[in-house]
Each structure stands twice: as structure tokens, then as C-alpha cells.
């Protein structure tokens, strides 16, 4: 009897040990599964640019559609649908445009001290962890996002879900100054942290190469700045930042100002480009930094000029309310001013040689009109000034880890992730960072 008892106990202990080991066994089987991913590569996590993540939404009865729009639950149902962006749906039924534009808006909730969706609209980012949601079904948005880079990486041995991952995010939100609420950005940060850790574990604990484009670089830089240095050094092999400098560029002051375009967008794209009828938290994130431009006039009118230092006055002149201007000053500006070197090995790649706005002339101070553009150098969107400022910021760190800034001639903001010659350079930098 005691013997049998012992035996059963032993069995149970074995079974329990096996159960505990099961995840490990499964993991080993997964690892042992034949794979076409090249095993020596460090895993890559891609963080795309503005508007390059897909969003789904669903409506509840709380949703109050714009008057006479016909939007809402009776027409759109209660299930999840593709809110950003479903070009096909808008082609089939252009009247949906009004619905989507309204449902993409954010509102600021003073009680929570944070932005949120319009009441009755729930949203989620599609396919976090993968690069599957980087594309668009809109032919005019072909190659705007990282699809070409994904293909180029696959050609050199990267495989989705094995050593290639994507970190899409809700681009309507933005990181806020330390201490202020930004639930969306905090959620993104926790997800990205887990994704990086899992990508590393899946690849023999090799640290990850983070590759960002445009606004994704700001999200990644703030994310890194807010993770413990030990974590960064353990998990981040390299940051490859494409097409971003310090702060944004003067060009971003234009659509922001255009109330006319915001009220009557000609397409959902234009609508989103005017930042969800001027409601997105992120619209203030890539305004030119006072640290880069100081008192240099960026917007010129007959009676007065506006520099980065006068941004609050400019926003007020462009029709933003006192509360909105206050949110620029308290939430967005401190993030721009506090940008710091990420303290991980870093390569910045930026296009140059393309006419890039560095001043806007609204002579009659009609910000809804089309400004005369004064061009400088850059990639068509990101001005070279801000790239030089990045070189000073990161290169000027007293104890900089590896830092390289590459200026790619004749390459546009979008060309960096779609022109074959630029892609070749980008992939070669990623491979270099990965060895
Ligand atoms: C876009 O909308 C159409 C309906 O017009 C739907 O069939 C399709 O599944 C939607 N696309 C996505 C990605 O949800
Ligand atoms: C944008 O907001 C303004 C009020 O600020 C409103 O009059 C207009 O209808 C809105 N436009 C859209 C497309 O929602
Ligand atoms: C605005 O800036 C321009 C260009 O720097 C300068 O020529 C002009 O005098 C300035 N205008 C005012 C009103 O300060
Ligand atoms: C401002 O420019 C817009 C667009 O060109 C025009 O429709 C509007 O009438 C102008 N406003 C004034 C006050 O001139
Ligand atoms: C950039 O493009 C211009 C005009 O197309 C051309 O003249 C120039 O040689 C190009 N420069 C480089 C470095 O490719």
C-alpha cells in the first residue's frame, strides 16, 4: 500500500513536472521547426510613420452621429469595422465618409486629463506585433508606409513572426509630457516592451533592432527614454531612425492652420491630414522645435511673423481655442523640448536634396488660403535643419554610444522606404546593425 501510494505520488510528480515543462517543450519544438528565417540575424521591430497603422472601430448606442448624416448603429451596426483606412468601402459608398470622419475624431476629457474617442466609439489597432497592417487598399497611398521595406527585409532572410515584427499604433494620440495622462501612449509602450522582449526570446535572446519611419521615430524615442537604461542595453541592439530630426518641421504648421480644409476635407486622407478636423493629440507633436528654430521667422504675414518660439500665438491666430493652445504648451511642447539621445547605438538616415518647406508666407494672414512656400533642403517633409539638430543632440552626448547620421541624396520622405536604391541602403544599415 505505502509503496503503491508512493508510486502514484511519483507519477503525479512526474506528470506535474511534465506539465511545467510543457511550455518549454512546445517552445523547443517551435524553435526546432524548420524555418527559412536566417538564424544569425537580430530580430527587427518596425515602427511605421503617421497614418500607417490600421484602426478598427465599433459603435455603441452612446454614439451621437452628426445631424442628418445617417451614421450610427442602425446603419453601421455594432460589429468591428475598418475605420482607418477602408478605401474600398468609401469608394462603394462615399456617404460613409462623413461617418468615418466624425468617428475618427478625438475629444479631450478634462476630468481624465487625457484625449479619448468620441463617446460611443471604441477603437483598436489592427494586428499589433505584425507588419500586416502597414499597407492600404488605397492606390494613392501605395508605398507611403513600410510595405516595401518589409519585402526588402524578407528578401534577405527576415520572416514575419519569426525575426520580423511590427509595432503599429494609434497615430491620433501622442506621448504627453511626463506626469500627464496618455493612456494610448502608455498602452503602446507596454505592448512594445513586451513585443521587444518576446522577439528577443524567440531569437536566442539576441537584442532587437528597432527601425522607425517619421512619426514612429518620435514614439520610439520617447518610449526608449522612458524605459530603464538597463532594459535598453539588454534588449535594444540598435535604433535605425529613418526620416526624422529633432521636433518636426515648418511644413507641419500648414495643414494644422487650415480650418477650411479641416471643415471640408476633400477626402478622408485630407481629413486625416488635417488631423481629424484638428482634434488629434498628435497634430502638435511634429511642430518645429524652439530648440532648433528659436526666433527664426517660419510663418510670414504682412503684419507679424511667427517663429517656433511664438507657436502658441500662431495656433491662437489660426483659430485654436485657449484650451487647445494650453495643451500644446503643457502636453506636446515639453516632449519636443525634452527629446534626448536614446543611449543605444543609433543610425539616423535622412533624405536631402529635395525642396523642403522652411517658411510659409500667408501674406494676408488668411491661414485657410494656400501659402507661398519658401524652400530649404531636406526630404520634402523633414527639413535638414532638424536633422543637423539631431546630429548635435545625439552626437553631442558626453558619452555617446555608436552614432551615425547618413544623408541620402535626392531621396524623399517616402522614397526612403520605397525607392529600390534607398531601400538597399536602409537594409544594408539594418544588416550592419544586426551583426
Ligand atoms: C472594407 O469595407 C468593405 C465593405 O465595403 C468590407 O467588405 C471589407 O471587409 C472592409 N475591409 C476591411 C479590411 O475591413
Ligand atoms: C469640423 O469641426 C467644425 C467645428 O469645429 C465643424 O463645423 C465641422 O462640421 C467639422 N467638420 C467635419 C468634417 O466633421
Ligand atoms: C518677417 O520676416 C521676414 C523674413 O525674415 C522679414 O523680412 C520681415 O521684415 C519680417 N516681418 C516682420 C513684420 O517682422
Ligand atoms: C481665405 O482663403 C480661402 C481659401 O482660398 C478663401 O475661401 C477665403 O475667402 C479667404 N478669406 C478671406 C477673409 O479672405
Ligand atoms: C540629384 O538629382 C539631380 C536632378 O535630378 C541630379 O542633377 C543630381 O545629379 C542628383 N544627385 C545625386 C547625388 O544623385
UniProtKB/TrEMBL annotation:
Coiled coil: none annotated. One of its GO terms (molecular function) is O-acyltransferase activity. The keyword Signal applies. GO terms for biological process: lipid metabolic process. The keyword GTP-binding does not apply. It holds the Pfam family LCAT. It comes from the Eukaryota. Residues 1-37 form the signal peptide. Gene3D superfamilies: alpha/beta hydrolase. InterPro entries: AB_hydrolase_fold, LACT/PDAT_acylTrfase. This is Lecithin-cholesterol acyltransferase-like 1.
